[in-house]
């Protein structure tokens, strides 16, 4: 045990024992170790984010914990060091004022960061957004258009049936659909519903509504989220020659073969930004090229108020869409300055892409 001295009466001294952890908690060095631990935690978060994606909830929470731990440790160490050595009353006031100012500045910076993330349209954890100027809200209304107002909506296909994974009924929070047509791939689910007890129902958009989606003879592949990754069904559904409202389709997933029939693509998630800073509304189209070859098409979702699109760029399964090739983009028919590499990196969320119309 460590002790501290307290003077009592006329010169009498009493030694009062104090728990070691309390005594150490009053040392600046201890809090510097806490700050160092926060920096280590932040470094681990950066590595985890590169592996799992910046929009992963674990990455978001770990990053916030690391930054908060480092800041609190450093500020507490600074506070204890400032008041060490029995300062005079005048020194206490001066040092206290300086320390208070530092704490207030850090609090203001933290509040500003949270406010920016909440108002800029940036989901917490999805920090792949380009660092250029912030954009205004989408120009379109946030309400979902009526089916009768959406071109091609009457050609949607509804699939329902039973899903299993490793021979057992699938329970999943998310289910999506990818359409593969002559090697080109597109994300074509109208929404991402859950799966309960193996039973599912999902709406898949047609090409008339979302270019690159369902056309006669194209293959529909279901996908779901398992653990930290995406897994694809082994079976595919052939898009019918004529529009059909709904049909039954059973499929199986295997944790030993997560790629299933899903194909390989470079995956992006992003926005189209107009010259006035607004986001292009639902129905805007993005085309991706390697050289003169069309390698992917996506449509800004009409039922998403944040105006996201999901773009899948094909690889060598489509002649001309070479792995390692430079991808150029057109947004609503206009060439944009941004380029990317066709590295065929899949991913849970896809790399973030912001296309700016000149």
Secondary structure blueprint with pairings:
Layout: E1 2-8, E2 12-18, H1 20-24, H2 28-52, H3 57-82, H4 89-119, E3 157-165, E4 168-169, E5 175-181, E6 184-187, E7 199-204, E8 219-226, E9 229-232, E10 237-238, E11 246-248, E12 251-253, E13 265-273, E14 285-290, E15 293-299, E16 309-314, E17 326-331, E18 334-341, E19 351-356
Parallel strand pairs: 3-11, 3-12, 13-19
Antiparallel strand pairs: 1-2, 3-4, 3-7, 5-6, 5-8, 8-9, 8-10, 13-16, 14-15, 14-17, 17-18
Helix pairs in contact: 2-3, 3-4
> What's the domain count?
2
Radius of gyration: 28 Å
- Specify the overall morphology: elongated
Return the string of H and E elements: EEHHHHEEEEEEEEEEEEEEEEE
* Average pLDDT taken over every residue: 79
Main beta-sheet annotation: 5 strands, mixed
Span between termini: 70 Å
Low-confidence stretches: 1-7, 116-144
- Structural class per helix/strand content? alpha+beta
Number of helical segments with 4 or more residues: 4
Proportion of residues in β-strands? 25-35%
Helix percent reads 10-25%
Number of strands: 19
């Amino acid at each position: 045990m460590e002790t501290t001295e307290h003077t009592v009466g006329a010169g009498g001294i009493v030694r009062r024992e104090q728990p070691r952890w309390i005594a150490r908690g009053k040392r600046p060095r201890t809090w510097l170790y806490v700050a160092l631990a926060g920096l280590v935690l932040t470094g681990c978060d950066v590595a985890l984010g590169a592996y799992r994606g910046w929009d992963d909830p674990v990455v978001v929470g770990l990053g916030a914990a690391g930054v908060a731990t480092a800041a609190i440790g450093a500020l507490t160490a600074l506070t204890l060091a400032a008041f060490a050595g029995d300062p005079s009353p005048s020194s206490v006031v001066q040092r206290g004022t300086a320390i208070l100012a530092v704490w207030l500045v850090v609090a203001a910076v933290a509040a500003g960061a949270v406010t920016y993330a909440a108002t800029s349209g940036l989901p917490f954890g999805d920090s792949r957004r380009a660092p250029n100027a912030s954009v205004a809200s989408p120009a379109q209304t946030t309400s979902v258009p009526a089916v009768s107002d959406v071109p091609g909506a009457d050609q949607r296909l509804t699939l329902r049936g039973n899903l299993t994974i490793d021979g057992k009924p699938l329970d999943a929070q998310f289910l999506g659909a990818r359409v593969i047509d002559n090697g080109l791939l597109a994300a074509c689910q109208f929404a991402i519903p859950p799966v309960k007890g193996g039973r599912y129902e999902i709406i898949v958009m047609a090409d008339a509504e979302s270019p690159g989606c369902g056309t006669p003879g194209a293959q529909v592949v279901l996908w779901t989220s398992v653990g930290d990754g995406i897994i694809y069904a082994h079976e595919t559904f052939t898009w019918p020659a004529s529009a059909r409202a709904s049909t039954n389709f059973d499929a199986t997933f295997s944790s030993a073969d997560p790629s299933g029939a899903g194909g390989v693509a470079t995956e992006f998630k992003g926005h189209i930004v107009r010259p006035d800073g607004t986001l292009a509304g639902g129905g805007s189209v993005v085309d991706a090229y390697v050289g003169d070859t069309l390698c992917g098409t996506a449509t800004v979702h009409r039922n998403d108020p944040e105006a996201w699109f999901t773009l899948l760029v094909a690889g060598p399964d489509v002649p001309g869409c070479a792995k390692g090739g430079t991808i150029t983009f057109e947004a609503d028919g206009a060439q944009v300055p941004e380029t990317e590499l066709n590295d065929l990196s899949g991913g849970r969320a896809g790399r973030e892409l912001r296309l700016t119309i000149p």
